[in-house]
């Protein structure tokens, strides 16, 4: 995966964001770029598994994404930079096999299409949440 992949994906995210809707062409392109991670991400979004947690004063955000395992673990992520899941560390940081994990893709898809569950908390609560990552 290259910088070109990121640029293509970014243009798709922006198109989805501008219309607040996802069509089959978008999904096909994203599947081509992200493979099985896109399939998993779409399932997570369909199950309303993405929360956008925002500080009420600062507007700073982090996403909480529910995993697909039976335990329904929740992972915190910044869609473009970080996820607290194991896959992020093994497939992205350590081995460089992927650009994004399924949780990052789900957060980006839900955010772009307006399908996040929005949660507002105080900036103090957000600071505590972030300090525990």
Summed up:
The protein is of the alpha+beta class and 133 residues long. It contains six helices and five strands, in the order αααββββααβα. The chain is 52% helix and 18% strand.
Walk me through this protein's architecture.
It contains six helices and five strands, in the order αααββββααβα. The protein has helices spanning 3-19, 24-34, 36-46, 86-94, 102-113, 123-131, and strands at 50-55, 61-66, 74-78, 82-83, 117-121. A hairpin with a 5-residue loop joins β1 (50-55) and β2. α1 packs parallel to α5 (102-113), α2 (24-34) crosses α3 and α3 crosses α5. The protein starts with a helix and ends with a helix. 29% of the residues are buried.
Residue windows where pLDDT falls under 50 for at least 5 positions:
none
Mean pLDDT score: 93
Structural class: alpha+beta
Helical fraction? 40-55%
Number of strands: 5
- Total number of helical segments? 6
Helix and strand element order: HHHEEEEHHEH
- Largest β-sheet summary: 5 strands, mixed
* Strand percentage: 15-25%
**Radius of gyration based on Cα positions:** 14 Å
General form? globular
Termini gap: 27 Å
List keywords for this structure.
52% helix; 18% strand; alpha+beta; single chain; 5-stranded mixed sheet; 6 helices; 133 residues
